[in-house]
Amino acid sequence: MHSYDDLTELLLQLGDSAMVQAQRLCELVGGAPALEEEVALMNVGLDLVGQARNWLEYAAERIADGRSADELVFHRDQPEYRNLLLVEQPNGDFGVTMAKQFLFDSWHYALLQSLRDSADERIAAVAAKSLKEVTYHLRRSSEWIKRLGDGTDESHQRMQAAIDQVWHFTFEFSMPAEHLAQLEAQQIIPGASTLHQRWSDTVSAVLSEATLIQPEPAARNYLSGREGLHTESLGYILAEMQFLPRAYPDANW
Amino acid sequence: MADWTLFEVFVRSKHGLNHKHVGSVHAADAEMAIENARDLYTRRSEGVSIWVVPSTAITATASDEKDALFDAADDKVYRHASFYELPDEVGHM
After folding, report:
1. CB A213 within 8 A of CB A167
2. Residue A200: is its pLDDT beyond 80?
3. CATH number, domain at B35?
């Protein structure tokens, strides 16, 4: 596995996670439960594509091997992707879709809050811009968790099942200690050590209001998005997403 | 989601202007209606404030009352405030 410096790896994790989450949301075009919900989900997806572009352009400059942000997205294979395992999971029913969205949003929100004060000015600027969008994403997905969790017997039970189903991927929300210490010392992620706690506080508050049970902290396992060790789901996403530019390299918008 | 309520959406495009009707959304409750309206109608900086009102709360005129209600006698020009110059300072009115 090829790996870059901690900062570049962080940019790839942010960019790839936003990109894959957006691609998963795009699958719901024409299939969301209500027209209003579909528009809202696509808006979230579009926000994330914009953010992915910002992070990956910076990553491309740092990698500096001639590849553009577009090429990073469309010409890397699974082991080179650094997205969170959570976002590559299938959408499932609407409960699972929202459980994934909510857990991602809450992690994203906590991280961007720290990055807004980053000593790296470019990161701080992108984070500040993204945070406005993500504040809304989190508000929307939290509302859904509460509505479905504290709704009917069936919606409660399905929302709990959805949270339980994807929860074990949240082990990635706490970074390995050595990377964390490094990024905090360089002030790239100020407050990195409190990040996991802040994420967990948000999640506890929403789940308790939703009358849902928060699972035990997820245990680390042999998979790792940040090391390019993905679940089988990512391959299918990339196959669909990358087909066109790979088959028709000269294609233009 | 077939039992969602229909809400009418009003958007204020700038401070100082009035809210204008822009369309309608379905939602489970008023909070969700605000979010849906935000996603449908204000994504391109169209507004600074949103109102949502359940469509059932609106009482409307019937189309067969048109003549009685709206067919004003146009020969009484003094009814129209067209002889006043509006000072610039008044702004939107």
Report:
1. no
2. yes
3. 3.10.20.520
CB contact under 8 A, A43 and B39: yes
Q: Do A43 and B32 touch (CB under 8 A)?
A: no
How do the pLDDT tens digits run along chain B, 93 residues long? 678 999 999 999 888 889 999 999 999 999 999 999 999 998 887 889 999 999 999 999 888 887 777 777 777 777 777 777 888 888 776
For residue B27, the enclosing domain spans 1-59
Q: What is the pTM of this model?
A: 0.88
At residue A232, φ and ψ (nearest 5 deg) are: -65, -15
- What does the DSSP assignment read for B43-76? TTS--SEEEEEEGGG-----GGGHHHHH---TT-
CA of B10 vs chain A CAs: smallest distance (Å): 16
Which of B1, B35, B40 has the CB atom closest to A140's CB atom?
B35
Class of domain A6-247: mainly alpha
Give the nearest chain B residue to A144 (CA atoms). B32
